[in-house]
Here is the input.
Amino acid sequence: MDKKPTPNRTFKDTLYGQLAEIGKGVANSKRLELIDLLCQGERTVEGLANEAALSESVVSQHLHALKTARLVESRKAGLYVFYRLADPAVGEFFRALRALAVDRLADAREAIQRFLEDRDGMKKVSLEQLQEGVARGDIVVLDVRPETEFHAGHIPGAISIPLKNLTKRLGEIPADREVVAYCRGPYCVLSLDAVTVLRKRGFRARRLEEGLPEWRARGFRVATG
Here is the structure.
């Protein structure tokens, strides 16, 4: 005969069941990528599909799962539906999960070393070093993310030149100062590619160790528009 659940057991079953809903919501690599993209600012299904190399129907399915887990929200503007993180805590959760994976999973560390560090071969700039260099007037900050992400939020004073336009717009970058390029976060390759282009063209360039989400999480001011 089954025992009647106690109030304590009912409470625990309910609580851990709700925690499992979050786990189910993020238990997919593409959903994690969508969360990472939404850390930059709200996006349409079409925009997310283009960045994640998925069909719009598949993105919609993933967003439905994330919305069911209360991790994302949506709003309608005319013919378009825009998605955003339901709370800044979702971004904090994603960064903590990413850090845990890098710390605990050897395959994750090896992938980073193989793809990023082996390509890098260059010194990185920390958030504190960036602030100090900008304050001294020694550094030009270059945002190489897509313009939609720049308008949603960026480091104050940054120049917006998306990576795909960089070679055509090099004349807009001061040549007498060091350039620090940044993108979506520590494992985003846009800034790596930008630094490679800039160095080949004679610029003194490094990449920011982290990205806008980390800048925002530290409580630094974020500009919009």
Remarks:
- The domain at 7-91 is CATH 1.10.10.10 (Arc Repressor Mutant, subunit A).
